[in-house]
Design a protein that fits this description.
alpha/beta; Rossmann fold; eight-stranded mixed sheet; four-stranded parallel sheet; 9 helices; 14 strands; binds asparagine
């Protein structure tokens, strides 16, 4: 008999709408299984269930990933064909990255799923995403962490857990980096998208040994994330109160941010800010950046010369969670640097397309 462990964590897929408000509701999680069992596409599977927390995913904090890990650790995963984790769409790419790192050597598939609307709304993709996840698990038995999410065209996309980017506002559509999902489900059959950035099936199947740092993964909540925009004024960021362990500074799409020095009081230059961080012993990382070998703008060169560390060929979502993991679980600067620069635990480092 096929066996799948279903982990409910909340989100719209576990929510009910009442008086025009959507909120998590314990009974709805189990309704998903009832709907599946009654569906024509149901397969013969024994589902075991648990619910370590029940949150709208916007309320999630990095400690919750450790809670999730502890809860899953109570089960022997070799008893299962795979896991399905229900989640909210808002922070799903971050949880998918966190689980990809924790379970990069897991021999069975772990699928995250979500829903755009509550299950009793006819527009909900929740049940379909569950059906695709079951079919992926039983059909491929691929190790690692994936996201199953149907797009507006009805394509049952499968994304690598480390490649998914935040959902687009207004359309609520997900995309993997380079706009290339790993593949899609054609009914019960998984079809990989042939593209230079995608790992081959052989590469995915290759056994990975568990990274030594990840025995008890801890994700630091002392990382500051910043995003550039015209006029970002670094005077607001002197770290007067609490000081972060590290900063991840997002960049414009071409790997740049403002280095413009203006006479006067306002600091628009990231170079200035990098120097402030360095003086205060706060490491600063830059992402997204293209891989070496491609041309760099002079602004990017100046940021790196000032002492910032580029994280190349990785999405911002996967980079942020990896920095959190490095600063939460590793001890020395050298270990952190090696981990961030030299490991690709589950295809978070992408080649150039
Ligand atoms: N569709 C959703 O699940 C959105 C919800 N706010 C969440 O992330 O929990």
């Amino acid at each position: 008999m096929n066996r799948i462990l279903v982990v409910f964590t909340g989100g719209t897929i576990g929510s009910k709408k009442q008086n025009n408000k959507i909120d998590v509701d314990h009974s709805i999680s189990f309704e998903l299984l009832e709907r599946y069992t009654q569906s024509k596409k149901a397969r013969s599977v024994q589902f075991d269930t648990m619910q370590p927390f029940n949150l709208l995913s916007e309320n999630l904090i990095p400690d919750d990933w450790a809670v999730l890990f502890k809860a899953i650790s109570k089960f022997d995963l070799s008893d299962y064909d795979g896991l399905i984790i229900t989640h909210g769409t808002d922070t799903l790419p971050y949880t998918a990255a966190a689980l990809s790192y924790i379970y990069h050597a897991c021999p069975v598939p772990i699928l995250l799923i979500a829903s755009n609307y509550p299950l009793n709304d006819a527009r909900s993709k929740g049940l379909n995403n569950f059906i695709h996840a079951v079919n992926f698990i039983l059909g491929t038995k691929l190790p690692g962490v994936y996201v199953s999410f149907e797009n507006r065209k009805g394509e049952a996309l499968i994304h690598l857990g480390t490649r998914l980017q935040q959902s687009a506002p207004f359309t609520d559509e997900y995309e993997s980096a380079y706009s290339v999902p790993l593949g899609y489900m054609n009914d019960e059959l998984f079809i990989r998208v042939e593209h230079p950035v995608n790992p081959t099936m052989e590469e995915i199947r290759e056994p990975r040994s568990r990274h030594i740092a990840l025995k008890t993964p801890i994700f630091s909540n002392e990382i500051l994330y910043l995003k550039p925009y015209p006029g970002l004024n670094y005077n607001y960021l002197p770290f007067a109160g609490a000081k972060p362990k590290a900063v991840l500074h997002d960049l414009y799409h071409s790997g740049t941010a403002s280095t413009r020095a203006v006479n006067g009081e306002i600091r628009y230059s990231i170079v200035d800010f990098i120097e402030t961080c360095t003086k205060q012993d706060v490491d600063i990382y830059l992402c997204p950046m293209k891989n070496e070998g491609e041309d760099f703008y002079v602004t990017s060169v100046h940021m790196i010369q000032a002492g910032a560390h580029p994280l190349a060929g990785i999405t911002v979502e996967a980079a942020l969670v990896k920095v959190m993991l490095a600063y939460g679980s590793l001890q020395t600067k050298q270990e952190i640097t090696d981990f961030l620069n030299s490991t690709s635990l589950f295809f978070e480092k992408m080649g150039s397309a």
